[in-house]
Amino acid sequence: MLLDQGEILLSIARSEISSVLGQPHPFRDDAKWLREQGACFVTLTQQGELRGCIGSLEAHRPLLADVKANALAAAFRDPRFSPLAAEELDYTQVEVSLLSPMEPIAFTSEQDALAQLRPLVDGVVFEYGHHRSTFLPQVWEQLPQRGEFMAHLKRKAGLHADFWAEGVRLSRYTVSKWKEA
């Protein structure tokens, strides 16, 4: 079931992007589970380098709609990159990460929080006031040390790498992920 699920999600994401670029791509969308609420991230890479990544942290619409919207956003609206061009499509790899529900992390200090993180397993959401950021579990591959991972997460939220204060909130989630070959 899971492999089939991945193939379906990947084909939906690629089809949505391809259609906008005038290169329709067939896909199946008749599976019942696509109508259930779901949260996903769509990540685009080229030769192993990030080319776009947009997603939803919490399920707020049917998974089918979430995959389609996040695929388009990753390809055409990620503010870090120019919109994907048709000539890039053939060498752009699509990855879909299906998120589990969010789980708050209770901690007494930054050290306690870091000790609870599970490298390569946890996606982490960092929140402080209006500052918010997340890294998917895949980011542990580039930032395997807990302290370094957290420092980059804080910078992504617009804070200093050594920032810590009462009021910091952390949550974790896991993902099932599929990537085109």
Short descriptors:
181 residues; alpha+beta; four-stranded antiparallel beta sheet; 4 helices; 8 strands; 25% strand
Structure summary:
The chain is α+β, with helices and mostly antiparallel strands.
Please, could you describe this protein's structure?
The strands form two sheets. A four-stranded antiparallel sheet has the order 2-1-3-8. Helix 1 packs across helix 2. The protein has 181 residues and is of the alpha+beta class. The longest helix is centred in the first third of the chain and has 19 residues, at 2-20. It contains four helices and eight strands.
Summarize the SSE layout with pairings:
Elements: H1 2-20, E1 40-46, E2 49-55, H2 63-76, E3 93-99, E4 103-105, H3 110-116, E5 123-128, E6 131-135, H4 146-156, E7 169-173, E8 175-179
Antiparallel strand pairs: 1-2, 1-3, 3-8, 4-7, 5-6, 5-7
Helix pairs in contact: 1-2
- Order of strands, widest sheet: 2-1-3-8
What portion of the residues fall into strands of 2 or more residues? 15-25%
Mean of pLDDT: 95
User: Which regions have little confidence, pLDDT < 50, spanning 5+ residues?
Assistant: none
Number of strands: 8
Describe the sheet with the most strands. 4 strands, antiparallel
Task: Tell me the radius of gyration.
Answer: 17 Å
- Describe the global form: globular
Secondary structure: helix percent: 25-40%
Structural class determined from secondary elements: alpha+beta
Order of helices and strands: HEEHEEHEEHEE
Q: Total helix count? A: 4
Ends distance: 19 Å
